[in-house]
Specification:
The structure is a homodimer. By secondary structure, chain A is α+β, with helices and mostly antiparallel strands. Chain A is built from 5 helices and 10 strands, in the order H-E-E-E-E-E-E-H-E-E-H-E-H-E-H. The first copy, chain A, has a domain of 135 residues: Trna Endonuclease, Chain: A, domain 1 (3-Layer(aba) Sandwich), CATH 3.40.1350.10. Helix content of chain A is 27%, strand content 30%. Chain A has a 6-stranded mixed beta sheet, with helices on both faces. In chain A, strands 2-3 form a two-stranded antiparallel sheet. Chain A has a two-stranded antiparallel sheet with strand order 6-9. In chain A, a hairpin with a 4-residue loop joins strand 7 and strand 8. The interface between A and B is large, with 40 and 40 residues. Strand 3 of chain A pairs antiparallel with strand 3 of chain B, so a sheet runs across the interface.
Chain lengths: 194, 194
C-alpha cells in the first residue's frame, strides 16, 4: 500500500496530504495503486523507455546497467483496463496558464487518436501547477482544438470549457475514472466487476 | 518499417526470413509493427523496467544513465487494443519439452487473471525452441491447469491439447490475432476498423 490510508478500511487518512508538493505523476501513480487495490481498474505507468548500451556484473553477481540512454517514447505513459475498456493517456504539468504543445510529442497525440479509433478511452491529464488545477481533456476535444485552432498551445480557457476539473482528494488522489464514468458510461447502472 | 516486406504493397517478401534464428520477442515485435502499420491493432512491448540510480551529462549535454538496475516487472511485457478489446500477454521461450513455471513470475499470472476478470483478452505465448513450435495459451486454460494440476511445469501435451499452434509466416511473423478472432469473435462478421 503506497497511497495514504489503508486498503481494507474506509480510506480515512490520518494526516492531510493536501498539496504538499506531490507531482502529478506521483498523484496518478497513487490513484492507480488505489484503483488496483480496490479492484476498480488495472492501470499502470509504463517504464521509462531506454536504450541499454553497457551492462556489467557487480560483486554480488547482479547485472548493473553502466550506460544507457533515454529514448523518445513511442506511446503514452499510462494504459490499462477499466470497465472492460482499454484506457490510454498521457499526463503533463505546466507552470504556464496555457498548455504548450511542445510539451507533448506529436506521435503521442497520434497514438491517442489511433487507439481511440480502435475503441479506447483516450485522454490527456494536464496540471496547471501555479493554479493548482488538474484537468481531464478527452481526445475528441484535443483533436477538435488541434484541427480548428492553429496555435502552438492549448489555452487554459479551453480546458476550462471542454475539460473536466479533477478535484484532489485523499483516495484516489485524482479520481479521473469518475470523469470517465460521466463521459462514457452515463446512464449505465454502475456494476462493480464481479 | 521493420518487418519484412513493404507496408503499402502486398507484403510479398523478397528474401526468406524462415527460421533464421529470430527470437520470439523479435517475431512478436515485427508482428506488432505489422498489425499497427496495417491498422489492425495497436499493441506494443513495454520498456524494460529499471531503477535509475545515477545520471550524468555527456559532452553533448545529453543525459546518460551511468548506473541502473533491472527491476522485476509488475505486469506483462505486451499490451494494447484489438477490436475494441484490451489485450495483455506475456511471451516466453523454453528449450525444454515442457514449460517450467519458474519462467514466469507468479504476479504476472495474477496480473493476467486480474485483467481477464476486468474484460481483457489475456494469454501466454510460449515457444518450444527445440521443436520450433509456438503456442497461444488462453488465460482460462492456464488458470485451469494451475488449479488442477499441481506441477512445477506445464506439459507440452497440454499446449498441444488446449493451446493454439501459431504458424510462422512472413507477415505477420506469428499471427496471434487470428487465434483471438477464432476464440473471442467466432461468428462475428469481421469488420475492419474504419
Amino acid at each position: 500500500m503506497k497511497y495514504p490510508g489503508k486498503a481494507n478500511s474506509e480510506y480515512k487518512p490520518t494526516i492531510s496530504y493536501g498539496n504538499r508538493g506531490m507531482t502529478l505523476e506521483e498523484d496518478i501513480n497513487l490513484s492507480n495503486d488505489f484503483y488496483r487495490d480496490t479492484d476498480r481498474a488495472v492501470i499502470y505507468k509504463k517504464p521509462t523507455p531506454i536504450t541499454i548500451s553497457k551492462v556489467e556484473y557487480n560483486s554480488n553477481k547482479e547485472r548493473v546497467i553502466k550506460e544507457a540512454y533515454f529514448k523518445i517514447p513511442s506511446t503514452t505513459d499510462y494504459n490499462g483496463i477499466y470497465r472492460g475498456k482499454y484506457i490510454d493517456f498521457e499526463a503533463k504539468e505546466t507552470k504556464l496558464k496555457k498548455f504548450p504543445l511542445i510539451n507533448i510529442h506529436n506521435h503521442q497525440i497520434k497514438h491517442l487518436e489511433k487507439v481511440a479509433k480502435h475503441g479506447a478511452i483516450a485522454f490527456l491529464i494536464v496540471r496547471f501547477t501555479t493554479l493548482n488545477e488538474t484537468y481531464y481533456l478527452d481526445i475528441k476535444d484535443l483533436t477538435y482544438y488541434l484541427e480548428n485552432v492553429k496555435k502552438s498551445f492549448i489555452s487554459y480557457d479551453y480546458f476550462n470549457e471542454k475539460g473536466y476539473l479533477l478535484k484532489e482528494r485523499y483516495n484516489p488522489r485524482i479520481d479521473y475514472l469518475s470523469v470517465i464514468d460521466d463521459i462514457y458510461f452515463k446512464g449505465d447502472l454502475y456494476e462493480k466487476d464481479k
